[in-house]
Amino acid sequence: MVKAEDALDMADGWKEVFERSRVIPPPGQTVRLALDNHLTQPHGFQLRLSRLTAAHLPQSQEMSGGEQDVTHQLRVTLFDRNHQQFFGNTWRSPPQSMKNNKISLNEVLYFHTSLRLPSVAMVLELVSLSPRPDGSQQALGRGFTVLELFTNRPEVQASDGVQRLNLHHGSPRGLLHPLLKDTVDYGSLLTAIDGAHLDCVMKNHAALAPAMHLLPENVLVSGNENVPGLAASPTGDALLRPQLLKTLPFTLSGLTVSLQPSLEKFESQLLERINADCHNTKQPGPEGTARTVVIQERRLHVGVHNGWCFLDKPQVAVLEPLASGSRGRSTLGKDSSATSTLPQTLGLRSSLELRLANHRALAIVFQLECVFSAPIGRETMLSATSASRAAFLQCLRWGAWCPFQEPADWKGEEIQVVLRGGAEPNPHGVMTYSSETSANAKSPAPLLAAGSAQLSPLPGTKDTITFRLSSALERKTSGSPKASPRTTQEEVSRHRRSPSRGQRSFPPASPPESPQGPGLSLSQLAATSRYPTISHSSSALPWQQSSPSLLHPSLLASAHQLSHVACSGVGSIAHLEMEPQREGDASQDEGDQLQELPFTPVHAPVITLGVSMPSSCSASSRSSLAHLYSAGFPDIVDGDGQAAEVLDPTEPVTFDPHREDAAPLRGDLLVFQFLAFTRTPAAVGGPDWPKNIYFTFQFYRFPPVTSQQLKLLTGDKVQQKAAGPLPRVLASINRDGTVNSAPPGLQVQFRVDGGFLKPGEKRWFLRYLALHSMHIDVWDGDSLLLIGSTAVELKYLLRQGRSAVQALHEVEVLTTDYVGEDALLTGAHEGGRRPPALGPMNVHTVVMGRLHVRTGNVGCPVDPSRRKAAADAAAPHSNIITPRQVIGGFRGGSLSSRNILRLNARNAAQAHRLGGPDPNEPDGAGRRKLECMAAVHRREGTEEAKVTDRTKEARSARELHHVQPNEIHNQAEGIANMLSQAITTRHLLYANLGTAEYMEFVLKNPFNVPQTVTVHSDDPELSAITNTEEWAYFKALCRTTTPLEENMFHLEEGAPGPRVYLRPKESIHIPLKYQSFLCDHTMALQGPSFQPPGKGSQAAKRNLSNIVAAKTIKVTFAAEDGKPMAICQVDVEPTPHVVDQTFRLYHPELCFLKKAIRLPPWNDPTVGDPDVRTHISVRCSDPNIICQTRMLAPGEPRDVYLKVPGSPSPNIKMFFVMVFTDQWMAVPSQIWQIYVHFLERVDVSCVTGQRSCQSLVLRGKQAVRKVKCFSSHPQEIEVDPEGVFVLPPAAVQELQLKVQPWRAGSRFLYVNAVDVENRRLVTAWLLCLNVHRPVLSKAFEVCVPVGGGRGSSRKITYTNPYTGGRSFLLRSDHPDLLQFKEEKFQIGAGESYTIGLRFAPSQGPGSLEILVYVNNLEEKTEETFCVKVNYS
Predict the structure, then answer these.
(1) What's the rounded mean pLDDT across residues 527-556?
(2) Are 127 and 75 contacting, i.e. CB atoms less than 8 angstroms apart?
């Protein structure tokens, strides 16, 4: 056993820090005032003291004798002017001598505080120090000054920047004079010292945030001061950019507390004193009621302390009496009377986990306290089993131990620490119980061995705590297996909310071991305790007591005890104990694999449209439809000029593939007409929002489309007569902002015929129309913000043998709003050191408007020029690659490099003609250029004919000299190239993203001896299929009837590829598969497109498609000698892929996006058993993005998890996710296109109904731009400057955001800075709002009749509490339901004003709470009223 030295007996380390860290708390009224002003988050500040000039300091008689020995010191303290009280600590600078009437301080102070109030100031005093004869120093004040820290606006500092403070005569004690109370300006009452001033700089220091938990609030420290837990800085200023020491987890186990002389006598003496105190302070009751105070629980607080404060909230554990020397649980029966087995110590069955850093001044602090239960009053002095009892706390003992104090020889040993009592300072700041036994704890006598319990106190005996400390990373787990943290948390939360008054809640049989003790609060005092009430004043044994009583606020506790209750809290907590493992149980070895727990993401998943589709039923009135049809949109007609047949989108569609194949018109002209947009009355941007819109979408495998900007036209005459919002007709806009004279609307056409489709693709295209919807994103043309998304079903484009069809769709434009749970304003986190955990996000779908789209399909005949090509393409595409018998190889002639290049060029031209027209073949314009160049060369050739024969011979000799070595060097290469061409078979392959292309190459052994052939591909995307099941799957999918062999390939580690054995002259089929998951991710800039003049609304901008790269892959079949036996050259021709759904996600810049996308339910029709789960796998087109899906329990939904690396703002990262539902991932069931918009993150904490200001910085780029800022919620966010401003290159423009939200909870809003000339996004911000509910002043209730078209009027009286006249503003969170008679009023001092309320009628019964805000002219909330409206 290691008998550890008490932390207070150490000469340095934790004790030294603790003794100098005494902090005076601020006035309680100031703290409450800060809470009322919603100042709960501490902010860090930096004060730089540069130089003090004192030319004419007042001379004193005490200092006249030894002026040369006098040094000067600057002292700094925080001061509350309203309550005339100093608080915090006093910082002292190193003593310095004055030179030339100047003192160079060069000191930097740091502190953090949440009391950002105008009454909080900083007092700086200059003190002269002179030596005394006895060796001490005499301090004399030479002047002082006051530094104003804050103004009425907490976000603006009064002392921000460089300050020159004048020193004043006198002492800072003069600020305590009654005449200076409530004085705003001390300058008129204090006399300045001529020529004496202090230069300093005060500014915010946000870098202090990571180290705020190491220092209490309102503590002034210098950068060179030693703060335990903080790493030393090479610059000497550790707080300039604080770096925390690395913490490691440690486990505290086997904890027992031994009290002297014994637990029985210690608690008996304690109860006797408390009962005697109760008997002396209260009138005696009936017989036997004088000793009714009993012990409810025994608790131990354990925390890590650095001398200044606790690094984290101390853990709370419940101790249980143990028998002497026993590590097991006491299980004596009621008839047991053995005194040797009475509880002698208190023990903790479970272990606690602490995080410690290797610093000599870090200490583990223990505090032992008891929860006492007592009768409530003199008239109700009931028995110990009564429920009418109160509870109060009392600290009994405390102790501290530094684990890293030298020497650290405690590893693996049992540690014993002395517990202290009595009136001495302790880290918890509470009064500690003192007794005769505890007085002996101060004796320096040695400790006794553990387990030597004495029945009477002996000289030198001390109260001790014994435990073991081990690293959680190295220790062996020898107990019963721990429950999961989720189980522990659920058990704790269930225990806290399940007990009710008069009920009893029992712990589980094996309570889980918890790594963190739950915190306690005063509100839990009404919960039932789970542990036996122990009373030494009754004759019953401790285990014979009845059920515990309810805990109430104590009427017997002193004021100190009540404050102690408010700080630590009392309540029924989760039992932290666990039954010890039996001797026969085997323990796990060190290094065992951890068992993964079930995981559930905390973020809400994105729902695919396969689960939630926008409503497409018509919601417009008859007058709205008439207004829409009279706008003059172009008609959709067939080839004969007849109007296309109209289909009803609300009726089902019957699809017959044979009727589509038998249609005489084989070509399709798909038409999409965007007609109008209907605004939503409750839109976030107001009734006239949006004014301009544009669309982005992608149809089938055509390139993505970004439309031009469209204006919402206004029909004033019709709007006045309409009861609801009318659809706004869309019209294209020219570059100058005028409306185009072309017909209204936007029409986009796609032609699908035999020249576009690949062989056999027609049925896939028809399947796409029958089963898919086209995703459309609707954007605000001014702000470039996403309004919402919608989807149009494509099944109404199926003609089914008709010449033309059309359908009018009215679809909802939806957006997803993520709102967190409401946060109470008073629910600030403990000490302000740690941000509150984000609660679960609620997903709300908001309707932003309705889009009117007309779709049509016009049948058209096949182009005669393409008819032959279509007929050729109709031939079935074979998956069998058979080498040709006649190979066009070397045709004789010279093997010069020139001939080889010509041959390669001819082969390349043949390869291009296999896939279509030769891209190198010139068109008409290119041909004319070549003819001109040929004429020039002919003219030059005529001039060169005049050159002498001698010159020609010299030039020929030089050319021959250079060519001959190259000819000789390339002969071998040319021969090898000709031979490889003779055994090369080419195959053209059309490839899609994620789709596997299956091929079989017929390989023949031309030799008379057997051969072992190695299959090698120079591209990993093309490989041989070696798995027999996979081969059979692809053969069945492609309907090939070739033979299937099992275990045909032989795989060797390190070989270039699989090997296969061939008999002489044998031919086999080698299965090959090409599949690519990578593609190009280029995309256009965000913003609408601009059409050239004359195009009108008939065209739209088409971006380059994202397809796989074109390439040529060679598969070599090498014989045993390494020479190729055959070569299969696959020419990959890329084709665009189909996008089934588009997602747009927004995330802060330069950080990982972790998101879950909910998959729709898939059932495999080939599996008869419905309980068999579909195999789902996913792949991503970007290798830098992690994409995976996890198997959950049957019946649970499945999500796709994404982890995307961040990018700077306003970059957009685009990629594709392929979802496969088959085991071998042959064809993706769905392909998702995902856009991630990275924005600059801005965190804003505010209160509903009250305006908060936030500054943003906009930096200029390389060119001059005209910029305007837009917000996603203009009614809640105002941006200053509001209009268009010029942003010069490399300039910095400050933007002011005025945020005034009306809904509580966590929300996400957006602000865009747009280049108004080019319609391009400059910068984007993501505002993460944490909105609290306000503190209510009054509550009212009113009844409003339902229907009838009449509302109700009410009045509320408001009195001005100020001593002067004020103007106020009235606001409501439901302006559509509540209106004010006057939204602004002015009232004199102490006068009353009647607020007139007008409630709008409702169409149905119900109730609603409406908040009424009384704000000042700065939109700061003075009062908040809650009006509950009952509609009946």
Answers:
(1) 33
(2) yes
Local confidence band at 1348 (pLDDT 50, 70, 90 cut-offs) = low
Q: What is the pLDDT of residue 785?
A: 93
3-state DSSP percent of the chain in helix, strand and coil, to 5: 15, 35, 45
- What would the two tokens of residue 107 be? 């000191």
Q: Which helix or strand (DSSP H or E) is residue 415 part of?
A: strand 414-418
DSSP code for 576 = -
List phi, psi (to 5°) of 504. -130, 135
Q: Is 56 helix (H, G, I), strand (E, B) or coil?
A: coil
Which residues are paired to 67 by β-bridges? none
The span from the CA of 186 to the CA of 177, in Å, is 12
Q: How many C-beta atoms lie closer than 10 Å to residue 60's C-beta?
A: 12
Q: Is 969 helix (H, G, I), strand (E, B) or coil?
A: helix
The closest alpha carbon to 1387, from 1417, 1354, 1427, belongs to: 1417
Handedness of CA 238, 242, 245, 247 (dihedral sign): positive
Longest dimension (CA), the chain: 145
CA distances in angstroms from 502 to 387, 499, 909, 934, listed in the order given: 8, 8, 92, 107
CB 1250 within 8 A of CB 1413: yes
Distances (CA, A) of 1237 to 152, 680, 1036, 1144: 38, 26, 43, 7
Report how far apart the first and last C-alpha atoms of the chain are (Å, whole number).
Answer: 76
**How many helices and strands in the chain, by DSSP H and E?**
15, 65
Q: Name, in order, each residue with C-beta under 8 angstroms of 783's C-beta and a sequence gap of 6 or more.
A: 1270, 1271, 1272, 1312, 1314
* Confidence band for 497, pLDDT divided at 50, 70 and 90: very low
Rounded CA-CA distance 262/324 in Å is: 10
**What DSSP string runs through 668-688?**
EEEEEEEEEEEEPTT-TT-TT
CA 505 from centre of chain: 37
Which two tokens mark 6? Answer: 């008490």
Reference 722, options 800, 626, 654, 829; nearest CA is 626
Distances (CA, A) of 1383 to 345, 685, 686, 1386: 69, 21, 19, 11
Cβ atoms of 418 and 366 closer than 8 Å: no
262 closest CA partner among 367, 366, 345: 345
The model carries a pTM of 0.54
Res 180: pLDDT? 80
Query: Which positions ≥6 away from 667 have C-beta within 8 Å?
Result: 751, 752, 753, 754, 859, 860, 861, 862, 863
β-pairing verdict for 984-991 and 1124-1134: parallel
340, 326 in Cβ contact below 8 A?
no
Among 254, 249, 342, 356, smallest CA distance to 310 is for 356
- Cα-based distances in Å from 805 to 642, 795, 851: 11, 11, 20
1148-1179 pLDDT, tens digit each: 999 999 988 888 776 554 444 444 557 889 99
Cis bond before residue 1064 (omega within 30° of 0): no
Place of tokens 């705003």: 184
545 and 529 Cβ atoms separated by less than 8 Å:
no
Give tens-digit pLDDT for 969-997. Answer: 567 777 777 778 888 999 988 888 999 99
User: Alpha-carbon distance 464 to 6, whole Å?
Assistant: 11
Residues, the chain, total?
1432
Contact of 624 with 845, CB cutoff 8 Å: no
- What's the Cα-to-Cα distance from 556 to each of 274, 612, 1374, rounded to whole Å? 10, 61, 48
Strands (E), 149-258: 161-168, 192-204, 221-222, 247-258
Tokens representing 228 are 């335990």
Distance (Å, rounded) from C-alpha 598 to C-alpha 484?
A: 9
561-610 per-position pLDDT tens digit: 333 333 333 333 232 333 333 344 434 444 555 555 444 444 445 655 44
State the average pLDDT over residues 1395-1419.
90
